[in-house]
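Complex 578.
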Amino acid sequence: MQEETTVLSNEQAGVGCRRLRLGAPGVASVARPGQFVHVRVPALDPGAMRRPISICDADRASGVLTLLFKLVGRGTEALARVAPGDRVDILGPLGTGFPMPEAADVALVGGGYGVAPLYFLAKTLLGAPSAPRIALFVGGRSAPDILLAEDFSALGVDVHVATQDGSLGAHGLVTAPLDQWLNETLADARHATDARHATDARVAICACGPAPMLRALDERALRLGLPAWLSLDRRMACGVGACLGCVQRVRSGRGGETTLARVCVDGPMFPAGKIVWD
Amino acid sequence: MDLSVNLGGLRMANPVTVASGTFGFGREYAEYYDLKRLGAVTCKGICLEPSPGNPQPRIAEVRAGLLNAIGLQGPGVREFARSALPWLRSQGVPAICNVWGHTVEEYAEVARILSSEEGVGAIELNVSCPNVHSGGAAFGTDPATLASVVRAARAATSLPLFVKLAPNVPDITVFARVAESEGANALSVTNTMPAMLIDIERRRPFLANVQGGLSGPAIHPVAVRLVWQCAAAVKIPVLGMGGIVTSDDAVELLCAGASAVAVGTANFVDPTTPLKVLDGIRDYMVRHGLSSVREIAIPH
Ligand SMILES: Cc1cc2nc3c(=O)[nH]c(=O)nc-3n(C[C@H](O)[C@H](O)[C@H](O)COP(=O)(O)OP(=O)(O)OC[C@H]3O[C@@H](n4cnc5c(N)ncnc54)[C@H](O)[C@@H]3O)c2cc1C
Ligand SMILES: Cc1cc2nc3c(=O)[nH]c(=O)nc-3n(C[C@H](O)[C@H](O)[C@H](O)COP(=O)(O)O)c2cc1C
Ligand code: FES
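Predicted structure with flavin-adenine dinucleotide bound:
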């Protein structure tokens, strides 16, 4: 849907990052974790393209939609200047969203602003009747790239941080703490379950971040036989499936056939093994 | 007030359609408004066999416009006729089917197949896509080649036949006259402008295809001039497009001599742009005391 929303608040959320809360009763009432909105940034020239931003939280009761975004260029910089009361036109919720994993343990893996949709997912999973245990693995170049860590902790999520310069958490890539956690969790799961069951399906991965990170996770998920969903970042024009600007080659059948999926409507998340990496 | 237009035999309830490639096959935007409110829906370019298009990245926003190198990805005409056309027909809005081919014969074959299907209101030949090596600008930038494509398509269909002209030619009126004399019923003016963006930090072209087509506000003044020139050069009507964002942009193309207009890139910015453009055209006609769309054109 297209909704004219009202800015409720727009505040700093870490270095070069803003948290924008919008009064968006329409979109908030139907949004699912992993979906995004296509934002028409006020103050840009009238012909400027929209910016795709993940839904970081949506509250059905209050109609509040929360977005978390990094300032990286003229669009996000202009969006950082909107004030309470301003109107912001959005399209959404767009994309398929994450399927709700049935695993007992869920690893959320985020790079940079990729944690935004994972927050909504964690909150939704934890609110469900049979909530899984959730661990978050969040990586970035440096401490300021690590977003929302306290917010996840406040939800009761087990948070693991890694930075490439070692300024916060483990030194190196986020896959190192993840691998350690996977080893331990899969060993525990094997102990706990009857050997006749497929134990590994008790652990699932949901991830959003840069392509090299997603690719590394795809390889792990396939090797370990774990269900995983990987959310891709792609330049988008329409956001609704009409322009074919955002396509990604994906496997479409067992015979090695491939096809082009539109990341905006067929994704942005794809299950492990689906994406044809180039 | 009479908003209807007869665009080379295609009857449109109002003068506003959408530009090929910016509206899919219509379905994606049906959620946002009733497509019947458009004068016609123009479909993404259709060719004979399924076509994969270009590698990523395919799009980039540039100052006052959009650069694209989609490369005419599509399912092929048979799949289009099987899965997209019946739905579009059920919407009760005329469909303009944009067609391209690798060869002259392919253009004619696709036109023939579409003519045997129910629900096609007109065929628009894309001889001006800058993003494919064959099937695109190669056909639209040489008058003799253009003549052979239009002739072959004309022989293959009795539907209203539009020819979509390239902006990047020294004299568009040469091409306009060729299309008219080979039997085209209308001209679509214009396609994207060949253009390029370089990522100066990575020190390489931004688009995988190296170059792309520029659309959006940046090309609007170019389109105004080309529509003006074509409208003066031929008797067949002109469908004007290029950089329409507001209704004033559309009215300007109608002033230049277009009989109808198509909204392209602006659909991505605001899906309801075509409806706003139509409202604005209506207001303009009231303000200027004009009773039919045809009266908007100014004398050359
Ligand atoms: C599905 C999806 C969800 C996203 N969610 C978030 C989020 O929750 N928080 C967040 O901070 N960012 C998110 N992004 C990235 C965000 O869209 C870009 O950072 C933003 O568009 C940059 O705009 P700009 O004008 O500031 O940058 P510029 O570099 O000036 O933008 C130029 C053009 O490139 C596009 N562009 C640039 N970088 C990206 C990118 N990484 N992805 C897609 N398009 C890009 C812009 O939309 C614009 O059209 C998401 C992207 C996608 C595809
Ligand atoms: C993403 C995209 C895809 C396009 N695909 C086609 C196409 O398949 N066939 C065609 O004739 N023109 C195509 N065009 C050109 C448009 O139909 C139109 O002529 C051009 O974009 C100028 O109008 P605008 O500035 O309003 O977008 C495409 C344009 C864009 C932006
Ligand atoms: S952004 Fe247009 S099809 Fe996905």
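The pocket of flavin mononucleotide (ligand 2) is lined by residues A 243, 245; B 19-22, 44-45, 66, 68, 70, 72, 98, 126, 129, 164, 191-192, 215-216, 219, 241-244, 263-266 (CB under 6 Å).
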